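User: I want to check something. If I give you two sequences, will you return the structure for each one separately, not as a complex?

Assistant: Yes, each is folded on its own. Here is the first sequence with its structure:
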Amino acid sequence: MGRRITRSVTDEGWSGEARGACCCSALLLVMLLVIDGLSGGLNAARLTLWTALAALLFVVLLPSRVTAGPGWLTTRGLLGRHSVRTDLLVSVHWSDGVAQRLVLRDLAGEQVVLDPRVLIDNPALWHLFDGGVRASLGRGTLLCGATALRELSRRAEREVSRTVLELSGGADWLRPEDRRPAA
């Protein structure tokens, strides 16, 4: 009778980032082939090397595709698919390194590593993720990560507020350092 409809949401910016990764790797390949061709050193071995280098750049630049639904979040990349139950999270923390990543681990031991900008830039993804986190907090399963979640929540709320102000014409009220750069 009262069947619940579950809706999933996917990262809206993924296709553009994937296209950018493809264009960058294709541009590198074309530049290397043109330079090597003009110098007269292009042969089958070098063509294979340059193609492999461009493919490696594509693999490095291609972001994982993030999809979320009520109580779950999944990332899909070239190396596989990883899912966590956001309503059964055990820990949330920031990974160390050059690029800031959010590491989520659930009660079953599953782990997802993702760029926090994906959640911040996609309000629908953030809403589903936040609902799952609140369920984890309510169940008492989330043992570690309150600080990381507060920081992420502040960043997401600031981004939503900035977007609302810009769309409503109230961007003049923003401090200069909070304004987005002009496109």
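And separately, the second sequence with its own structure:
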Amino acid sequence: MPFTLPPRTPSGPRRRSLLASAAGALVLAGCSAPESTTDTTGGSPSAADRTRARAARDSETLAGRYAAVIAAHPPLEGRLRPLRAEVVRHAEAFGGGSGGGGRASSSASASASVSAPVSGSASASAGGSPAVPATEKDALAELAAAERTLADERTKALVEAPGELARLLASVAAAGAAHAFLLTEGAK
């Protein structure tokens, strides 16, 4: 009688659903057009515009974190470059910058800021550039945590967002969750 292993139930989402979510995010991000930029009451930005601007800023900050980790840990470049490119596309879909302007400054400041691991995003928002953990494993864990936190924030923002922006937030949040999964699965 051959020895068979008991079936292993995977923790977390299945690979196929993550890939489908990421593909959906790309399709929706590519098809989205910016919505109206001003409210009809006095020219102040609407709640949707503020949400869109915050999402673009958050994606640009996350792209900066990816660039800092790539600069501090060059062996991770092949693994992180495609994920960073996706994050830059997310920022562009929300109406943010091209993502290329801050690349040189983040890379230069990242190499100077390799230090002990930092806790959360407090140090990233307090200084201009995020400090990168000294080990690759810690750097990947920090990126995964940042992706997960941002995906959760975007999921919460869905409630108040109008239709098209809500779909974009949902697809980008799904892509962020897929990125977090990919960042943590590679360490296993």
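Because they were folded independently, the notes below concern the second chain alone. Residues 83 and 188 are 18 Å apart (CA to CA). The longest strand covers residues 114-115.
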